[in-house]
Amino acid sequence: MSVQELLTSATATARAALADVEDVVGDHLRAEVDADGLVSHYFASTQPGYQGWTWVVSLSAVAADAPVTVNDVVLLPGSDAIVAPAWTPYRDRIRPGDLGPGDVLPPDEDDLRLVPAWSAEDTDDDDRPVAREIASEREWVLSREGRDMAADRWHAGAQGPDTPIAQQASGSCRTCGFMVGLAGELGGRFGLCANGMANDDGRVVTLDHGCGAHSGVRLGRSVTPQPLPPPVFDTVTNDDVEVL
């Protein structure tokens, strides 16, 4: 008998290694040769909540006439086992709106959305708004990538041109009297809604966004209250008056 044959046939030894959990150990499933002198025995798990998991006992021996040694006992998930999702770092789990009072979310040290204020004008074109940002004593300012990312996010969001309310609007924010313009590069595409009755009040909107609260909206003839006819004093018909 070879060492592998000895270890493969040592099912009883492998099950004995699971004596502490024998109440949740099912049938012997298979034995796999992992390496020369190393074989793993697989047993079904009957523990509630661990469907598809298997108990694995690793056995080893140095020779065919040597004693069998238990190396390891583990509980491993199978292909149809219910397992926890892959770990997601805390920073990657944060979503807009998750921050509460007292919470802090510092940017990454290599955040491409930010550049030092002193280097913000190292571009091929004249970026005069950045000069004003430097004068305001801000250590960091938005990089060109940061502005592009914000613009793409706002354009695709609820204040963009592709939302149902914008598609049904009779006018765009570009022509609305409640729209407050933005300075800098973003001003050519976005504004700020200042209509307290609009859904987007206080939010950045694309110039081609729109809603029913446009400053140019007027009531149509069909929804205008109809004037009542003047009152008529009836001098012909007698009124019936109940005398108490």
TrEMBL record:
Q: Pfam families given for it? A: DUF3027
Q: InterPro entries annotated for this entry? A: DUF3027
Q: What is this protein called?
A: DUF3027 domain-containing protein
Species name: Aeromicrobium marinum DSM 15272
* Lineage of producing organism: Bacteria, Bacillati, Actinomycetota, Actinomycetes, Propionibacteriales
